[in-house]
C-alpha cells in the first residue's frame, strides 16, 4: 500500500514559523499537503517510516531551519545523508533560516543535499520560485 507522502515538510522549532510557512505555501499554491515538525529527530523518523527506496514521482520539498535546540539543521542533514540514494532523491532540501552568518550560507552551498539557502520569513514569491511543478496536478 502506498503511504501518503506530503509534498512539503517544514522543520523548525518555532511553531509560529511552521504555521506561517504552511499558510504561505497554501496562499501561493492553493490546497497543498504540508507536514510540520518542531523536532528534527521526529521529522527524520517520519521520513524513515513514510519513505522507502521505491521510485516515486512526487518530490517532497523540505524547508529546514538551522538553529534548533534538540537537533540542529546541520545534524539533521548529517543523519539525512545516511539514507539510501533512492530515498534521498525523493527530496529537495532548502535551508530556511534567520541566520545572517555568511559561514552558514557557505556551509549550505557545500552540502550536496541542500538546494539553496533562503532567509526567513518565507514569502509567496519564494514559494513560486522553488515549487516543483511535478507536485501539482
How would you summarize this macromolecular structure in one to three sentences?
The chain is an alpha/beta fold and 137 residues long.
Folded structure, characterized:
The protein is an alpha/beta fold. The chain contains 6 helices and 5 strands; from the N terminus they run βαβαβααβαβα. A 5-stranded parallel sheet has the order 2-1-3-4-5. α1 packs across α6 (124-130). The longest helix is centred in the first third of the chain and has 15 residues, at 15-29. It is globular. It starts with 7 loop residues before the first strand and ends in a 7-residue tail after the last helix.
Strands ordered across the widest β-sheet: 2-1-3-4-5
Overall pLDDT confidence: 88
Tell me the helix content. Answer: 25-40%
By secondary-structure content and strand pairing, the structural class works out as alpha/beta
Proportion of residues in β-strands: 15-25%
Shape: globular
Which key features would you list for this structure?
single chain, 137 residues, alpha/beta, 5-stranded parallel sheet, globular
